[in-house]
Amino acid sequence: MQTIKMNNEIEIPILGFGTFQITDPQEAEEAVYQAIKAGYRHIDTAQSYLNEEAVGKGIKKSQIPRKDLFLTTKIWVENVSYEGVKRSFEESLERLGVDYVDMLLIHQPYNDVYGAWRGMEELQREGKARSIGISNFAVDRAVDLAEFNQTTPQINQIEINPFNQQVENIKALKEEGIVPEAWAPFAEGKNNIFKNEVLLAIGKKYQKSVAQIISRWLIEQEVVVLAKSVKPERMAENLAVFDFSLTAEDKEAIAGLNEGESQFFSHADPAMIKWMASRKIDL
Predict the structure, then answer these.
(1) Among 27, 208, 222, 243, which is least packed, fewest CB within 10 Å?
(2) Is the pLDDT score of 96 beyond 70?
(3) 137-140, long-range: CB within 8 Å, 24+ apart, which pairs?
């Protein structure tokens, strides 16, 4: 598996298995088990996904040594404070059944971000979180956090897909030493992406699926990719992206798909911020 070296010298597998919206405990456990069996070594979950316990059981079921896996979880908005991080992270470790995570992220850029970051820096020094980062932060917020704290985030997990390519933001994050990581690389199927004529035509050249073309496009930008599927055959397909390369012409065609806006919602929308502030997760 190809990896990217982060600013703390730790390497993260460039392909990860996402578990968002896999909420049924048995399905989540089996999906993680099957993903590891297929070859994934990078598993991504979050407090707000309500599946940390099932993810931990899937990892245990795989019998893969803990040191061979890269495990990420995220702190939900209501816990984004110094005390909230310290308390809720211990609960996440207990649910996951592990002694440490490889990456701990602030899930959304709201609440007491700076207090939370200080708590996460302590967890990193203690070895409970090998790496720390952020998710859904605008570049200016990411740079602000980096410049006024001891630790520059190792990762910023943001929406990146052919319809929202974030070209300038990817460049700015890399200049700050922050690795970009893509959630919703396939736009969760929006805009009929899997039947997009441009992506289908490129896929036909290499006998690859649209999902494989998108993953390859991101990998060649050195962006970490999170893919999700509960089907073992699709998991295997999503991993088979290291045996071909895209041409400049292919990349130019994909660039033409960029709409330059989120396929989901704006993180600057006051209504969305209020909704996230009101969402209390019951664990």
Answers:
(1) 243
(2) yes
(3) 137/106, 137/109, 138/109, 138/169, 138/267, 138/268, 139/169, 139/172, 139/173, 139/176
CA distances from 61 to 42, 55, 79, 95, 222 (A): 15, 10, 29, 15, 31
Helix 248-255 vs helix 210-219: angle between axes, to the nearest 10 degrees?
Answer: 100
Is the entire prediction scored with pTM above 0.85? yes
Cβ proximity of 183 and 226 under 8 Å: yes
**In the 8-state DSSP scheme, what is residue 148?**
T
Catalytic residue numbers, as ranges: 49
133: enclosing H helix or E strand: strand 132-135
For residue 185, give the 3-state DSSP assignment. coil
- If one counts every other C-beta atom within 10 angstroms of the C-beta of residue 210, the result is 18
The answer to whether the CB of 156 falls within 8 A of the CB of 173 is yes
On average, the pLDDT of the chain sits at 95
Decide yes or no: CATH 3.40.50.170 for domain 3-278: no
Q: Is 16 helix (H, G, I), strand (E, B) or coil?
A: strand
DSSP state of 47: G
| Confidence at residue 167, expressed as pLDDT on a 0 to 100 scale | 94
* Model pLDDT for residues 201-257, shown as the tens digit of each residue: 999 999 999 999 999 999 999 999 999 888 999 999 999 999 999 999 999 999 999
